[in-house]
Amino acid sequence: MQWRWSLAGLALCAQLAWAQVEANTATEAQLDGIHGIGPATSGRILQARQRGPFTDWTDLMLRVSGIGQKKAAQLSQRGLTVNGKSFATPESPLPSASRTAQ
After folding, report:
1. Measured between alpha carbons, how far is 19 from 13 in angstroms, rounded to an integer?
2. Which of 28, 52, 91, 95 is the most core-located residue (most Cβ within 10 A)?
């Protein structure tokens, strides 16, 4: 009987570990719960989100400093989504002038 409770607990932990966190609706605590997002990054995400929801991963990367393609791929693998979508490497690199202008 005890092994059933252990198995149920493991299944719950696995489910929570793979839970998706939506960048446009997540709370600070939910963002902080993703490995690789600390208080500074979650604060920048929430601040950028005040100007409007992120349309896609490229929009998030342009508006949130410290999140580039490599970081976006890592965060996506750890459960972060933008508009319900995981990160997919863009066809062309982000223009550096656009990143610094904002």
Report:
1. 10
2. 28
Place of tokens 């904002």: 102
How far is residue 18 CA from its own chain's centroid? 12
Which residue matches tokens 């092994």? 3
The amino acid at 74: Q
Inter-CA distances, 54 with 24, 31, 75, Å: 6, 15, 15
The two beta strands, 21-22 and 80-81, are parallel
pTM for the model stands at 0.71
Structure tokens given for 55: 């349309």
How high is the pLDDT of residue 19? 78
Among candidate residues 37, 40, 6, 34, the one with its CA nearest the CA of residue 18: 34
